[in-house]
Design a protein that fits this description.
167 residues; five-stranded mixed β-sheet; disordered C terminus
């Protein structure tokens, strides 16, 4: 019997990405986000969701990706994926939610050295699909404060622990 995982897939720039469904709390439409002074460039700000303060991370800025060109119809599929990682809630901005897919472990190929500006250290693997590739992100590693400190987008800025916003 093979091992499989369910992935929430979404478009970011021109690529299709996936994250483990177990890390996803919900997907919401774009909300008004309040900026945080002196936050790293990729921290878009915070917003309230059912009496919780949720920090919002912009992966376009984090990895210097261009926003996807979307139609008016696709705009309805854009928004935030709200993650719950070990009790820490935060959101990531997506261009377009795609669907939930089941990926068999043997389908996953090791990540190449560099894929669309996101380093291989943040990619669990790549899956070949009919229409291209699905890049499986290691969202837990990608969003740690340690990795922000190593990012050129954070140079000279205070590094926030997202737990600061959820207390």
């Amino acid at each position: 019997m093979s091992e499989s995982n369910q992935m929430v897939t979404f478009q970011l720039g021109e690529e299709l990405y996936g994250i483990n469904i177990m890390d996803v709390k919900e997907i919401v439409r774009v909300q008004n986000v309040r900026a945080i002074p002196n936050a790293p460039v990729y921290v878009e700000g915070i917003f309230h969701l059912r009496n919780e303060i949720i920090p919002i991370i912009n992966l376009h800025k984090r990895f210097h990706l261009k926003k996807a060109v979307t139609s008016e119809e696709d705009e309805l599929l854009s928004g935030f994926i709200i993650l719950d990682i070990d009790g820490m809630k935060l959101g990531i901005i997506i261009d377009k939610v795609s669907r939930v897919v089941t990926i068999e472990k043997e389908e996953i190929q090791p990540p190449p050295q560099m894929v669309s500006g996101i380093g291989a250290e943040y990619i669990q693997g790549v899956v070949r699909q009919e229409t291209g590739y699905l890049i499986i992100l290691d969202i837990r590693d990608l969003l740690t404060p340690k990795n922000c400190k190593e990012s050129p987008t954070c140079e000279g800025r205070r590094v926030y622990d997202v737990n600061e916003f959820t207390r």
